[in-house]
Amino acid sequence: MTTPKVRLPFDDDQRLTQGFGERPELYRARFGLPGHNGIDWGLPIGTPILAVDAGKVIVRHTSATGFGRYIKLQHSWGQSLYAHLSEFQVSIGDEVERGQRVGFSGNSGFSTGPHLHFGMRINPYSKSDGWYGYTNPHRFIDWLPREEDAARDQEESKEVETPVTGVSISTSSMAQLEDELAHIERAFAFELQEYKQQADLWQESVMKVLMQHLPGELPPSADILASLETLMDAWAQELDQQRAAAITAHFAPSEHQN
């Protein structure tokens, strides 16, 4: 898998309103998805939406439902998606640069409020993977300050002494370190969320099997692993009995031999 590092699809700080994989019950019922297959930011209508990397416009579509007005860009590493727009600024076939404006945020399609839905497909991907090929964009986004901001901070930086080591470092370096730590914390939180969602889906599937095959209802506090082991033991015993019966029937004297 390629590992691109893309910029944010807008300037300035914006509020992240929904992460990847969230609300599985809603997206499973409405779209057949295991959960939300992108990242949402709550943006005022008309916020400029920017290409996260250089690429080519391959989709520019408007729908009354789903993504509403949305754009897809093809990149060397895969695709990026920008949905629920209010206005397009590019056309099919346009080559765009990293940071170029491709549209304005809106509230079109299946949307509960003005926001941007951003998605990424990373090569190689499969549209039949349950997520329609989309993966968690969080790990590929450069959450650190943009280059121009970093350059300005460098010019304005002052030497400060850290209270722990007594070593003098610039304020911009301190800010960058804090941003990197915050980025690591956010990435870890998203990874933890994904693992929890996968565990919940696994538990839900196992419970369905247990409820179907074990007599009686399982209490909410039932030990799932122990119950699953009991079920597998029962299946193994049943299989042994069927095998023994088949062997006995095979070697039993036939009527023609009597």
Write the layout of secondary structure elements.
Elements: E1 15-18, H1 24-31, E2 39-42, E3 48-50, E4 55-62, E5 69-74, E6 78-88, E7 95-96, E8 101-105, E9 116-122, H2 147-156, E10 159-161, E11 168-170, H3 171-213, H4 224-251
Antiparallel strand pairs: 1-2, 2-9, 3-8, 4-5, 4-7, 5-6, 6-8, 6-9, 10-11
Helix pairs in contact: 2-3, 3-4
Which characteristics define this entry?
258 residues; alpha+beta; Glucose Permease (Domain IIA); 2 domains; 9-stranded antiparallel β-sheet; two-stranded antiparallel sheet
Task: Offer a quick outline of the entry.
By secondary structure, this protein is of the alpha+beta class. The protein contains four helices and eleven strands; from the N terminus they run βαββββββββαββαα. The chain folds into two domains: 16-143, Glucose Permease (Domain IIA); 174-251.
What features would you describe in this structure?
With 258 residues, the chain is α+β, with helices and mostly antiparallel strands. It has 2 domains: 16-143, Glucose Permease (Domain IIA) (Distorted Sandwich); 174-251. The chain is built from 4 helices and 11 strands, in the order E-H-E-E-E-E-E-E-E-E-H-E-E-H-H. The chain has helices at 24-31, 147-156, 171-213, 224-251, and strands at 15-18, 39-42, 48-50, 55-62, 69-74, 78-88, 95-96, 101-105, 116-122, 159-161, 168-170. The strands form 2 sheets. Strands 1, 2, 3, 4, 5, 6, 7, 8 and 9 form a 9-stranded antiparallel beta sheet that branches. Strand 5 (69-74) and strand 6 (78-88) form a beta hairpin. Helix 2 packs antiparallel against helix 3 (171-213). The termini are far apart.
